[in-house]
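Technical note accompanying the year-one report. For the benefit of new consortium partners, we illustrate the data format agreed upon in the data management plan: each record pairs a sequence with a structure-token string. No post-processing was applied to the example shown here.
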Amino acid sequence: MTDRTYVYNYMVMEPSGDIRSKFRLNATFAALADPTRRALLARLAKGEASVTDLSEPFGMSQPAISKHLKVLERAGLISRGRDAQRRPRRLEAQPLRVATEWLENYRKYWEGNFRRLDALLQELQTLEPKKKRTKAKRSHMHR
């Protein structure tokens, strides 16, 4: 019998909180990338629903909807309840809150850029009438 040495990459095997949150954020955006899954979330925002209820407006089979629901469930965006024979799905808002907070940083960045651009455009607009007046004076003087 030989000795086996196992090397574990703890970053993969046991992700830290920061890495784990990045994986969840990636899973959230991957799940939101599909329009059908976004529509399912919009429907679940109105209240819990069964797979049958969720599949009706899409004209998709229940297995096809179930695949989308599994993606949403793995991302933590929905959960499955138990109500007698039914297993209704419900929206879980926490991953959406985390994604919104992440996006908020970029919104602030772009708003700052737009404010600077607005200021530059205003400055250019105030300089433009001065240039026109100067040109008008020059052309009037050369006549």
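Partners are asked to follow this layout when depositing records. Residues 6-16 have pLDDT under 50 and may be disordered.
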